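SUBJECT: protein chain
CONTENTS: sequence, structure tokens:
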Amino acid sequence: MNATITTIIISFAVLPILVLSYQLGTPSIGESAVGEYLKQPALTTFALAKKQESKEVLPRRRPEIADLVVDSSEALAWDLKQNVTLFSKNSEVTRPIASLTKLITAAVVLDYTQPRETVAVSLKAIRTEGNSGNLKEGEVLTVYDLIAAALLESSNDAAYALAEYTGNKIISSKETPPDPVKTFVRSMNQKFNDLGLVHTNFTDPSGLADKTSFSTAEDFSRFIKYLRDNQRYLPIWEILKMNTYTTESQNGVSAHEFRNTNPFLAELSGVIGGKTGYTPAALGNMALVMSGPNGTEIIYLVLGSADRFGDIRKMVGWVSEAWVWPAPM
């Protein structure tokens, strides 16, 4: 390379360093000038980012505590605020999730309706497999009432009634013949796809179709984080905190008391909400969200368990012993 060209390149590379050295190192400039230099936007932003980064203290695993063993086919404990996996077993394997499906059903309903809208329960909804909720054909309930029935007592009738009503609001005029429940289920799948949760598929709003409806612990825990992060879905968490919910149909047909199937509301402190699910093929499933140290939230999720509540208890106890959340610096 030509010596002159080499000299020019070196000069341009060194020049910024010489300028900075001059600004910071020459006594005649004074401390005020140095201070003004350090206040430049780029440097201020960088310093602030480093300061904020130094405050985050991630949970630390205590190595003296033995690894957790659970019987469920799939399990996950995840600090959703700090994005730290605390425990994982087969969490990327697809499995039927039974009535955990009703959480996505409730979310899609709230995307298209208001909680106080009224729904007339159809004969098709009443004929859905399973009769939890004891709904009556022709009775008129609010969207909120039906979400409570679906989430607390896991009413398949309520889930179908919600899908039918909401699907009719979503349905395209080009769809022939119109099928509101199929339209609704497409929206369920589209929502997961939009969130990048591609290892999940739904074919009904209740989770009854074990062979064709499935998800993974990874996908579903990230969907739960999405529910926690969006104000639109506050009614879901409000309902999941209730031990019971009582209501009467708008047209006086019936009165209802829906009882929560989550036993941990009375057993553990810090429960934010949970949903159970069971079919003979899926076995026992449960998703539980609890508050954790330093303002975090922890998702506990088990799929395919012969003792879902026992597995959740093991996970909650183990996480409290095996992990430490140091105070923020």
User: Anything to note?
Assistant: The CA atoms of residues 32 and 49 lie 24 Å apart. Residues 3-35, 42-54 have pLDDT under 50 and may be disordered. The two ends are 53 Å apart (CA to CA). The chain is about 45% helix and 20% strand.
